[in-house]
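Progress note, project year one: complex with prephenic acid.
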Amino acid sequence: MTDKLKPLRQQIDEIDAQILELLSRRGRVAQEVGHVKAETNAPVFRPEREAQVLRGVADRNPGPLKNGDVQTIFREIMSACRALEKRVTVAYLGPAGTFSEEAVYKQFGSAIEGMPCASIDEVFRATEAGTADFGVVPVENSSEGAINRTLDLLLGTTTVISGEVSIPVHHSLMTRTGTMEGVTVVCAHSQALAQCQVWLNLHHPDIERRAVASNAEAARMASQDPSIAAIASEMAGEQYKLGVVEAHIQDDPHNRTRFVVIGKLHTNPSGRDHTSLVLAVPNKAGAVYDLLAPVAKHGVSMTRFESRPARIGTWEYYFYVDVEGHVQDANVARALEELKQNAAFFKVLGSYPVSL
Ligand SMILES: O=C(O)C(=O)C[C@]1(C(=O)O)C=C[C@@H](O)C=C1
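Model obtained:
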């Protein structure tokens, strides 16, 4: 056994030495890129370029490593190279261990400064003030729909959307002991309680459910009190040394949350992009239909349509629309120009690469 392993491990050592040499070369080139950018005050983080690199490695991947795994490795390589140019600060809805933190790492890799914030409002404030270079905020969940606070804040923000990231959301029921003995209350963020309601009704119909600020906060509470069970990610459970009572209790096994990256950066076209906008129409019959006509006319696909009350006391709404393509694409530019003519309110939130 050992005799057979030895030459294989030698091969691995040789390959690792080559990988290390190549990584070092890549790092030195990134430093040069950093100097060129510094001369022209150009942005360090380029989401469109990173998206192209990651799509490229998946397209050229000869195997046997899986595309997703190769992309994770390259995500980290770019993150480390980027940190040689500048370590970007990213604000998100904390504490550490939330799905928002997971989204931050999926988008930026781990060579960043994470800035956990107490609320979505604070993420916007930190990004607008420049305390953080970017912010990552949840915008919609596949089972629960829009995250209204984010939509409301996008309306008035001076930041733009420069990226999107979507992650699977799996919830586990966890306690200090890994059993439900002595548990009188289940704590989680209200969204998580809603996403697990069918399972809870079936298995623990009589236990009180309490909404708290975040799932990570629920995990922290459960770690200190044996009468509390938390619904959170296993990542948060590990952080607080909780035992898993039941894994994957979310009602929809394909549950996902989509986040957007906000910042001051206008992202260039990557070849596969989305554009987000907010619109309002005059309050008259057929107005919404007329408003959206240019989208179809110019062959632009709409991927999302969401409405929010304008909260000015009348039955008026803001419409949050996502379309395929970039504002610099000719057909998108023409469609938006016409949309703008018919709209009482019109704001482009940003164009950015479609999430992996
Ligand atoms: O191409 C660039 O602009 C780089 O700075 C290099 C690099 C990379 O490591 O590949 C790093 C950071 C950018 O976000 C994009 C790519």
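The chain has a mean pLDDT of 94.
The first strand starts at residue 89 and ends at 93.
No further modelling is planned for this target in the current period.
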